[in-house]
């Protein structure tokens, strides 16, 4: 690898996480599509076809922070952090092999549309209520987050106070995963692990909710997995969904012709959402570890090496999506990788698409115009593609001649 590649990756990774990783991805795809990054201790795979293939390769497995926690040198620390190891090892995106397959097979029927849809809140009405509250609001904080919270609330069936506590634990559990110094974040993460354990037990004991049924099904095949699965569902909703809503709204607001297409063709919203999810891809990568030597894009990956499958870069690959940075609601979207692929393909993808569609339909309803009302601040992060805020202003739509 050239030193220019090393320098570019180092700059992007250390201290200057990109607010727009697009140019970095383009450079990687062109010059170093599978790049072994020394500081990151991982190979970056940037091209669409390589990413799609490696996510389906069973020799590359998901592994969470449990592996790192097991290698700490202080035996007391290892013992103190054991509950944390067990907790994260049971998140579905961090587990692999037979234990993952069993849990996934038990949980999957609960995500069938006929089973989960009746449990979800009336997102269209909720989004209409939220957008009608003030002339100016933040699409991320005042619309995306409350909607994601309502989705979690209806799945877990907890009262407001318990739900609020669960969301605090959700933030702490994710905070540990993204902390610059994870060991400093272990106290809150241990609290979160214990909180998810006791809440999962209480949900199952009380019964009668979607989560009670789903967690009991998981508990029947792997009793130790229920807390991790509950955390996976809560964080899996709270982390990407508000960002996907804000990213999609931002893309539409920046493209008046595409916004006009969206508004004029409600019957095509289902297909159009896929293009919005392609460009708005919130999770930028999925991490994997090689269990044996494999070849990706002509590069040999050794057993034990980590690989980051760059999902967002794959979605921006011109080989797969011509003129990739342009929002084109009528484009062919086969192969969008925002929800991953293979054995870890997002179980909540249909829920997410439906929530996104209903939220955007309410936000861009014909009754009002929507305009940007301030800076949409991009998040500078290697792992998350999103915004700190998306301020908008709503004004009543001008009457049309047919309004009389
Ligand atoms: C726009 C919103 C969402 C995005 C972009 C997204 C993205 C993803 C991705 C990329 C993965 C796979 C990660 C990997 O391969 O390592 C995943 C897995 C998962 N997601 Fe989502 N997700 C979203 C919403 C949801 C929702 C709403 C739920 C639940 C209600 C959910 C539940 C899950 C679960 C349970 C898994 C684990 C699947 C497994 O490992 O077998 N996700 N998600």
Nearest-angstrom radius of gyration? Answer: 21 Å
| DSSP strand count | 12
CATH topology-level name:
Cytochrome p450
Number of helical segments? 19
Question: What does this molecule look like?
Answer:
The protein has 404 residues and is α+β, with helices and mostly antiparallel strands. It has one domain (3-403): Cytochrome P450 (Cytochrome p450, Orthogonal Bundle). Helix content is 52%, strand content 11%. The protein is built from 19 helices and twelve strands. It has helices spanning 3-13, 22-31, 48-56, 66-69, 75-80, 82-89, 97-107, 113-116, 123-131, 139-156, 160-178, 186-206, 210-221, 226-238, 240-253, 256-264, 269-280, 311-315, 349-363, and strands spanning 34-37, 42-45, 60-61, 136-138, 285-290, 294-296, 299-301, 306-310, 368-372, 377-378, 387-389, 391-396. It has a five-stranded mixed sheet with strand order 1-2-8-5-3, with helices on both faces. A hairpin with an 8-residue loop joins strand 10 and strand 11 (387-389). Helix 9 (123-131) packs parallel to helix 19 (349-363) and helix 12 packs across helix 14. The longest helix is centred in the middle third of the chain and has 21 residues, at 186-206. The protein is globular. The termini are far apart. Protoporphyrin IX containing FE is lined by residues 62, 92-93, 104, 232-233, 236-237, 240-241, 244, 282-283, 286, 338-340, 344, 346-348, 351-352.
Short structural summary:
This protein has helices at 3-13, 22-31, 48-56, 66-69, 75-80, 82-89, 97-107, 113-116, 123-131, 139-156, 160-178, 186-206, 210-221, 226-238, 240-253, 256-264, 269-280, 311-315, 349-363, and strands at residues 34-37, 42-45, 60-61, 136-138, 285-290, 294-296, 299-301, 306-310, 368-372, 377-378, 387-389, 391-396. By secondary structure, the protein is α+β, with helices and mostly antiparallel strands. The site of protoporphyrin IX containing FE has 23 residues, from α14, α15 and α19.
């Amino acid at each position: 690898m050239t030193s220019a590649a090393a320098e570019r990756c180092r700059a992007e990774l250390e201290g200057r996480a990109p607010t727009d990783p697009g140019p970095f991805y383009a450079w990687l795809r062109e010059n170093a599509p599978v790049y072994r990054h020394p500081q990151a201790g991982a190979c970056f795979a940037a091209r669409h076809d390589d990413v799609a293939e490696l996510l389906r390769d069973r020799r590359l497995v998901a592994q969470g922070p449990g592996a790192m926690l097991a290698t700490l040198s202080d035996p007391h620390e290892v013992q103190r952090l054991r509950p944390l190891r067990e907790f994260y090892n049971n998140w579905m995106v961090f587990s692999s092999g037979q234990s993952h397959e069993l849990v996934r097979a038990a949980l999957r029927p609960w995500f069938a549309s006929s089973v989960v849809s009746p449990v979800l809140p009336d997102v269209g009405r909720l989004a209409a209520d939220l957008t009608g509250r003030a002339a100016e609001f933040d699409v991320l904080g005042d619309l995306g987050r409350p909607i994601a919270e309502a989705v979690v609330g209806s799945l877990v069936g907890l009262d407001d106070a318990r739900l609020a506590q669960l969301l605090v634990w959700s933030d702490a559990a994710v905070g540990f995963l993204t902390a610059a110094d994870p060991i400093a974040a272990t106290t809150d993460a241990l609290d979160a692990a214990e909180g998810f354990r006791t809440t999962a037990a209480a949900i199952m004991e009380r019964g009668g909710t979607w989560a009670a049924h789903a967690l009991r099904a998981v508990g029947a095949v792997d009793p130790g997995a229920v807390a991790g699965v509950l955390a996976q569902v809560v964080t899996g909703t709270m982390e990407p969904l508000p960002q996907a809503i804000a990213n999609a709204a931002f893309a539409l607001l920046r493209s008046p012709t595409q916004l006009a297409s969206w508004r004029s063709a409600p019957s095509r919203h289902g297909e159009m959402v896929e293009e919005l999810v392609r460009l708005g891809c919130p999770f930028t990568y999925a991490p994997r570890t090689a269990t044996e030597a494999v070849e990706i894009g002509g590069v040999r990956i050794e057993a034990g090496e980590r690989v980051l499958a760059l999902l967002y870069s794959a979605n921006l690959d011109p080989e797969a999506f011509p003129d990739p940075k342009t929002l084109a609601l009528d484009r062919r979207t086969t192969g969008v990788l925002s929800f991953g692929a293979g054995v870890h393909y997002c179980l909540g993808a249909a829920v997410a698409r439906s929530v996104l569609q209903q939220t955007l339909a309410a936000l861009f309803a014909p009754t009002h115009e929507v305009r940007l009302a301030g800076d949409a601040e991009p998040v500078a992060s290697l792992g998350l593609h999103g915004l700190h805020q998306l301020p908008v202003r709503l004004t009543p739509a001008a009457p049309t001649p047919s309004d009389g």
